[in-house]
Fold this sequence. Notes:
Number of domains: 2
Distance between the termini: 66 Å
Low-confidence stretches: 32-37
Largest sheet: none
Mean pLDDT: 80
Amino acid sequence: MNARRQFALLGLLALVAGLLAYGLTRWVFPASLPAADTVNLDWLRQEFALTPAQLETVASLHADYAPVCAGHCAAIAEAETALAASTTPDARISAQAELKRLEQRCADSTRAHLRAVAAAMPPAQAARFLALIEPKIAHTEGRIGAPDLNARP
């Protein structure tokens, strides 16, 4: 066999071995990363000692608020696009005011959601939860999405 054929055969064998190793690894160690929402709720359950009923209430609130949050994010993104496209000083002032209004609406809505989540917790845990999470929504500029509930202080 010439060197060129040996090299091609060796490359083919290496490829087959690599694919076999990958397949075996995926079969033995399947990917099982939980969704981000699950992680957040699991952390909340553990950190704030939530009962199954409390966790169910929080999960329901979380699911109900997700499309509201997405709507706020979409409106803010549109306002940012309008601001960037502003060509006159009056249009820029108007777009900035609209962006500020939408960011405030987002912050107020998120704050109300967090208070509803806290209401599902025991009072002492609720106070600790709000003290930990509410400061994260104080500065909405440049932030897209709800505050990270999984981050500890």
